[in-house]
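Predict the assembly for these four chains.
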Amino acid sequence: MHYETLKSLLKKEGYSLTKPRKLVFDLLLNQEPQSMQVLTQRAIGKIDRATVYRTVELFERLGIVRRLNVGWKYKIELSDIFTGHHHHMYCTNCGRMFDLPDSPMLETMIDSVVAKTEFSPRGHQLEIYGLCASCQRLAI
Amino acid sequence: MHYETLKSLLKKEGYSLTKPRKLVFDLLLNQEPQSMQVLTQRAIGKIDRATVYRTVELFERLGIVRRLNVGWKYKIELSDIFTGHHHHMYCTNCGRMFDLPDSPMLETMIDSVVAKTEFSPRGHQLEIYGLCASCQRLAI
DNA sequence: AATAAAATTGCAAATTTGTCGCAATTTAAG
DNA sequence: CTTAAATTGCGACAAATTTGCAATTTTATT
C-alpha cells in the first residue's frame, strides 16, 4: 500500500519506480532515520553509491523523504506522508532516535510564534537531544 | 567581558585560551551562524583549517558554541551563554538565518512534552524553514 | 626571566563524503 | 518487439573532514 503511494508520487512528476528506488525506499521503511553512511553501506552489492545519493535527492525533492539534522550529520527518514508529522529525540550517547509524542498544541504554538514575523514558513523541525532511558542507566 | 567567560569555560576543563581559539571566537561573536566553509575561509593566513575544526569541536564539547542544523549542512554559533536561548528561521532561498521571537510558553510546552517520556533532555533545537520577507517579494 | 613539561598548532597526507560525465542498461510508449 | 527516453553503474573528481607527527606555544616551576 505504501508502494502505491510511492509510485504515484513518482509518476505524478514523471518518474518511474525502478528497482534501485524501491530498494532505497525499503531501506527506510519502518526504520529509525538512517545516515547516508548506513544507507550506502546497506546498498553495497545491490546499487551504486551514486545512485543512493541521487535517489535520496530525488525523494527529498518530491517530498518522499525528509532530511533530519542530527548532530554533525543528517539522517533520512520517510516523510510525513508515510509516518505522520512528528519530531525526534536524539540520544547523544548511542546515536539512536526516538519519536517525540505528538502534541497538536505544540504545533499550534510554533505556528503562532512564527506568525508574528514576516517569515513564510514551509515547515519546521524540532530536535531534542540528551540521553535515552537506557543510556541514562549506564550513567555516562 | 565575553573573553573572561570564554577563558573561564576553557580553564575549568584544563584548556588555555590561545590565539587561534580567540580568533575562532571572534569570528563567531556578534555574527549570524557561520558555516565551516566561511569560518575556514576567514581563517586563511591566520590559522590552519585543521585548527578551526579542532577548535570548533572543542568549543562544542565545552558548550561554548552550538552546531545548528541547517538544510544539508550545519552552522556554528556561540551558545546560549553568550547569546541567550533562541531559535532560528532559515531562508531556503538566500540561506540567511533569522532569530525567532522568544516565547517562554513555547519553551515550557516543549519541556512538558519531553517530560512525558523517559528521555533526559540536555537541550533542543527548533528550526523553521521557508522564505524570508525579502525572498518572498522576489517571488521565486 | 629562564627552563622544562605539557598542550597546542601547522603541515601534509589520508579518509570520507558527495558530485559528475558518459557509456551501458533498463523502462516506457507505440 | 522496437525505439526513444530515463536511469544506472562506473570511474574519476572535488570538497569536506580527520589524523599523525614534528615544530611551536603556553603553563608551571624555579
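The interface with chain A takes residues 67, 69-72, 74, 89, 91-92, 98, 100-101, 103, 105-106, 109-110, 113-114, 116-133, 136 of chain B (CB under 8 Å). Residues 14-16, 18, 20-21, 47-51, 54 of chain B lie near DNA strand C (CB under 10 Å from a C1').
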